[in-house]
Amino acid sequence: MKKLALHWQILIGMAFGILIGLVFTNFDWGVNFVTDWIKPFGNIFINALKLIAVPLIIASLIKGVSDLKNISSLSQMGLKTIVTYILTTVIAVSIGLLIVNIIQPGSSIDENTRQELLDAYAGDAESKKVDAQMQKENGPLKAIEDLVPDNIFGAASDNSNMLQVIFFAIFFGIGLILIPEKQSKPVKDFFDGFNEVILKMIDIIMLVAPYGVLALMATLVVEAPSSDLFFALLYYSVAVVSGLIIMIGFYVLLVWIFTKKSPSFFLKGISPAQLLAISTSSSAATLPLTMERVEEHLGVDPKVASFVLPIGATINMDGTSLYQAVVMVFIAQAFGMDLSFGSQIGIIATATLASIGSAAVPGAGMVMLVIVLGQAGIPEAGLALIFAMDRPLDMLRTSVNVTGDATVSMLIAKSQNQLGDPDVKNWDDNYKKD
């Protein structure tokens, strides 16, 4: 596999994983064998990626912020980043609503199938509703309050607290900017070296990525619901996948228009991260590879990538927001509800805010989805309808999330005159070309 590009290695791993899963499902002992002897290697791979997620964010953000030299550069880039992420999220939700209203997937759910799904996934749905209820009971400023950690080590010990880690890293970087260079230089040198070590660890982990992906895909196949449930939700899945494909096309168009980079250049550069996102269903776990691809293969200056991408992995969930829009209308259709135009406009706003609050870990969007359903007046029991297909669709929407992060990083880099030729390693030479 060493002679093949990383994305081909990952694709081969995915194919073999699916094949192994299909083979073992034909044996009575096959599911237990995959669960006991193959699944752990997939879990180890994901854990290794999560292991370096927090150190990567801390090192890259502190380095990125401190390299900006002054507060005005930080505020300028930060404003551009947040505004661009919000705009792409609103567009994603709008695309989801358009697609689901055209396809009308809820009309394909009959009463028997609906009851079967409700019975099968009622327990999972109830647990998500409990988690969501706890979040809904919080005050209006709870999100801002939770942004500031009372203990950075406690925040760094849990990947769901990425926003707190990002806040600390940016705050620390600002402190480095404000003190004299003589005092800041040793600290900056430390984090520069620390960042290089983390990047080298990523290279090592990527050597086993195809095998980790193989284990993850084999596990997904043997643990998947029955084919009857998949068939009942076929139109719903088509609606989600169609929307995600359109969103990918929108990203490619943005890159082509604003950076003049060809679609093939962009897709070839980011494809390994897209495939890894499909396997892990986690933007945070995919972040190390996303940063490597964006910097070394798409030509984004490390100062921009180290600032934009960690923030995007936490607040930019375009695939998740698009999915939430489709799910809400789908469930409403399945229950015979007619959502007005005003209700669907409200869905755009709610899904945008909910996607920002979603943790960059598998399944986090489900908790936020319950809150969005409640805001739209849609029965939360309908959550059980989509559990059967949530995992495979979670994989695809995570890939869109990662692609969105890469797209915005290129747009911000271009606006800052920090998008160069990835084949030219000296960034000063890159900028002289512009």
Layout of strands and helices, then pairs:
Elements: H1 6-24, H2 30-66, H3 71-103, H4 111-136, H5 142-147, H6 152-156, H7 162-178, H8 181-206, H9 209-222, H10 227-232, H11 234-259, H12 263-280, H13 283-297, H14 302-315, H15 318-334, H16 341-357, H17 364-376, H18 387-415, H19 427-433
Describe the structure.
The protein has 434 residues and is an all-alpha fold. The protein has a single domain (6-433), classed as Orthogonal Bundle (Proton glutamate symport protein). Helices cover 79% and strands 0% of the residues. The chain has 19 helices and no strands. The chain has helices spanning 6-24, 30-66, 71-103, 111-136, 142-147, 152-156, 162-178, 181-206, 209-222, 227-232, 234-259, 263-280, 283-297, 302-315, 318-334, 341-357, 364-376, 387-415, 427-433. Helix 2 (30-66) packs parallel to helix 7 (162-178). The protein starts with 5 loop residues before the first helix and ends with a helix.
Average per-residue pLDDT, rounded, comes to 77
What proportion strand? Answer: under 5%
Largest sheet: none
Q: Indicate the structural class.
A: mainly alpha
As a whole number of angstroms, the C-alpha radius of gyration is: 22 Å
User: Which stretches are low in confidence, meaning pLDDT under 50 for 5 or more residues running?
Assistant: 359-364
Number of DSSP E strands: 0
Assembly level: single chain
CATH class: Mainly Alpha
- Which percent range fits the helix content? over 70%
Distance between the termini: 37 Å
CATH homologous superfamily annotation: Sodium:dicarboxylate symporter
**Count of helical stretches:** 19
How many separate structural domains? 1
